[in-house]
Please model this.
Amino acid sequence: MTYITRADRMLVGGKLVHASNGEFDESINPATEEVIGRTPRATADDVDVAVKSADTAWPAWAELTPTARGRIMRDFGQALRARADEILRIEVADTGNTITPMRGDVGVAIDSLDYYAGLIHELKGQTIPATHQNLHLTVREPYGVVVRIAPFNHPLMFAVARTAAALAAGNAVVVKPPETSPLSAMILAEVARDALPAGVFNIVTGDGRTVGDTLVRHPLVKRIAFIGSPVTGRAIQRSAAEVAVKHVTLELGGKNPLVAFPDADPEAIADAAIRGMNFSWQGQSCGSTSRLLLHEDIYDRVLPLVVEKVKAIKLGDPQDPASGMGPVNCRTQYDKVLAFFEAAKTDGARLMTGGKPPAGKPFERGFWVEPTVYAGVEPGMRLWQEEVFGPILSVGRWTTFEDAVEKANGTEYGLTAAVWSKDINNALRMVRRIRSGHTWVNGCSAHYLGVPFGGMKNSGVGREEGIEEMLSYTELKTINIVLQ
Ligand code: NAD
Model:
């Protein structure tokens, strides 16, 4: 067994520590099933220490001037940049995501720190003309301790980019990394220890039930931000509600439609369908447009192009820049994808390519499945309704405008949607009817810094990635100055 990093400590109160009981969880490379590192298995007591450290640290952090706080955040970003190559190598080995697009993740993390550092001066209140003789105003105050719970698909990026707003608003954070891909957090712990005041940034590793749930229920935690599955999101809302009144925001799953009108260019739709699936991280993306809804007039023209392009995706070692897709993240994900292959068979979807694990070398070990397309997918099928979070693209057809609206909206989810048409009127009419939080016209997949991202329906609560996210980490206090 060869560990790819010796870093194996969490960050609690400015110190790099092991779990108090000395226990660890080992992490495996999903491409090979080799053990590649270890992380502390934190206890409930360790979580308590981390939260209390954050609670001690935030008042001084919040009292820094916006300029001073922003400067520290930017320096934190530069310190991450200095270890970007190391982080990338570890992240690719630990997640299975392919290396070329994953280069962007550290960049997004740093850009987000810069963006929110620059927005701190916008934490403004208002004056309100409620009475003529008095002064009524609002100020924004941090919650204090913010908990961030992250999923496995972009661990480092979520740990940094999705805590930057909370830090900017003057909170201290406690991050809970995903248990199947926690190794990059061990490097992050070292960087944050040196870059930020003690206790402002804490990392506790371990499982969801012990570490996650203890964080959610902790009496000093009122603000919880979660990215992950809808089932866990609801469990978090439940746990939080059992113990107190808490502010919980949720970024959850999606079964996102890409609706193509007959006037759109078939080649461009096929390219968008591939890009929108994010095969380079095995379709493990909440925003993946995993339902391609083609107008009946172009269905037979676009489908073969899509299949051809999916067949061309090169499955292989995620560390190889030429690979277009790696293994899925873990055995649970692997079993889930295989179960969807079975469900597709039972439901009568038409397999166009993939639908099985690849044979031969180097795929004997690891969690490999082929990039997959099913056609003839219809609203009653599991593939239509349920998020796979894997490399399966489902293709269905529509006839009238209303048929497309109904089909696009016909799931419990509402995270993203893409509409393709050369006619901007058609596209906008459609986009306005689709109940999704983040939409693209003639685009797909991309997030844009500063543009809010989040879901409607069971895809979530709240918006992240824009100024709204920063404001969501503050409580509004009103001050009424009664003049004598
Ligand atoms: P998950 O819900 O299984 O786990 C996410 C995190 O929650 C992990 O850190 C886990 O340890 C923790 N957790 C588990 N049980 C918990 C509990 N009871 N209390 C507190 N924390 C708990 O999700 P996953 O499998 O890691 O990620 C896949 C899911 O994440 C998909 O549904 C995907 O769509 C979603 N996701 C959403 C977005 C978004 O921005 N909307 C982005 C990425 C992923």
Q: What stands out?
A: The two ends are 75 Å apart (CA to CA). The pocket of nicotinamide-adenine-dinucleotide is lined by residues 149-153, 176, 178-179, 207-209, 212-213, 216, 227-229, 232, 235-236, 251-254, 286, 387, 389, 415, 455, 460 (CB under 6 Å). The chain has a mean pLDDT of 98.
